[in-house]
Write a structure and sequence with these properties.
The complex is a heterodimer. By secondary structure, chain A is an alpha+beta fold. Chain A is built from ten helices and nine strands. Helix content of chain A is 45%, strand content 22%. In chain A, the strands form two sheets. Chain A has a five-stranded mixed beta sheet with strand order 7-6-5-8-9. Classes of the chains: A alpha+beta, B alpha/beta.
Chain lengths: 251, 411
Amino acid sequence: MSKELTTARIFLQAVLPLFEELPKGDEAAKKAIKGLNGVITFRAPRGLAAQVEMKDGAITVTQGKSKKSSITLYLPTVKMLNNLFKNKGFALPLPIWGIWNLKLVNAFTKLGERLNFYMTPDPKKPMSAGETKLAATLLLFAAILGAAVVGQDGGEEAASKVPNGIAQFEIKGEPSAYIEKRQTGFRAAKGRPRDYNLFMSFRDYTTAYNMFVGKLDFMAAIPMGDIILSGSLPMAEQISQLMLKVGEYTQ
Amino acid sequence: MTEERYKKSIQLFKRAAKVVPQGIYGHFTPAFTGPMSSPYYTAKAKGCRYWDVDGNEYIDYICAYGPMVLGHNHPEVDEAADKQRKLANCTNHPGEIMVELAEHINKLIPMAEWVVFGKNGADMTNNSLLIAREHTKKRKIIMAKGAYHGTAPWTGSGHGGVLPEDREHMLEIKWGDLEGFNRLAREHRGDVAGAIFTPYHHPTWADQVMPPKGFWSGVRKTCTEEGIVLILDDVRAGFRLDIKGSHEYFGFTPDISCYCKAIANGYPLSAMVGREALRISASNCFYTGSFWASAEPMAASLATLKILKRDNAVEKMKKMGELLKTGLEEMAQAHDLEISVTGPPAIPFMTFVNADDFRKSQLFGAESMKRGVFFHPHHNWFISAAHEKKDIEKSINVADEAFKEVKRVFG
């Protein structure tokens, strides 16, 4: 698997699903999609496709192109898709279908700006409690969903070292996601698994946020009870390596 | 309840976390023993027992991760160390004790024809590679996947700050795979300086693996034929399986053997011994450190090695280990739990069968610690010569209660 393709898959399978969270916790995002209903389809070579549906003030992201599209954005190369997501501001190309639905595109562009706000915060402007809450949630999901893509593509040594099983990550009592490794490969999802082999729970949103932005002494946080860690420690060690790679691919 | 039991430990740790990265780092981290449900700091220790800063008492089955081979604060060892320290410890020169200890070790270990001293096991494993490369003028080193030889980048510990180039000349086989070893030796013929292995495989987070039949004799044969320096990392097992070194236990002769842990019953010392053919190459390498010639640990070591032999301590540790293994197996069976106790009796490790995620082990460890027995959930255990039958029996009784809890939670 080429680096470009893995990066593209991270954007579609780990970054795009973050848009679902934005209207739940960000007023500007909520406002941007108010009254808009429709489906934006992203397509690129090598079978890359995902859809963003805006409906009744909520966003649903699905992989593939099973829904009827209001507007289709085709990126002629994988690299162009990556550039789209890497470019600050999420400037979109002209659609090949549905040009009359530019309102959806504009809303998506606004959502992209809000995502940037949370994912690449200005260090000089501390986030409010509410902003930290959403940022921590987004970072948690991006790390878990992205790690599964990196693991599945198999180009990293850590992927082969991850023991089979399920690792659940949560911010105490609230957002949760899990990554599952089997002989068939990796998969990840938001939500709670039926069981786990590794469980990691952050005491609160600030702890989670600080960890994902590299401001937390992880190994000190565990014995203090700021992070609850139980089960397969080798799994935690190797998945954390995959998580670190997510950032390397998308920078 | 559990947090209350370790209240002072946790308070102390919170202070530490402000001034020390990780609070407690390395293999001592409580993140691996049971966060919030295991001791963090030691207050005092004696024999096979120790007390944490909260006043909780434990029968010790980790023995400082190996060094306490005669038990904590052994009076004869401490007396020898005290006597030397009062004369001289860290000065401009080594003491006479260095020569005495070197002579003693050369007599004790049949393959040893020279010895050098350091502080930690990694001092010796790192330098053993230098000697192998100096001796052969070759580059590659063969090691086993998942083996622990210290924290140096070449060991592949997988932690921060390591570059791919640091491991450029390292080749890996699955531990015990003689065919794989021979294949690598052939493929890289003319470029393999050394092979470094532990006497048996003792990885963290996994069962221990004894050498398959013919492994050591086969490795020895290939190393001799190919001109590869065979290095034994006996840091963890040395002086617990055989007073003359673990290679005697397994019946082979390495070219270099590295020791630490049990060599001085808790005083900081490591040693590397080698065969005559490597003496000049050993002399051509440069190794030293601020405290490497300190006399006190050498006095402690000489006393430790003499006591181990006098008291036939290796045999006692074996017997106590066998007693513990049998007791654990019987208790587990009584609770309809399937366990596996692997490794040599003096360095056992218990895991639950088909429980690779260690959740049962973590609960078992926490429940045992709560009742005064320190069974590590992830790392092999150590028996010392200070463990008596009554300690083993008490530990088995505690294990009975811990197994009951494991059964209740996991079914």
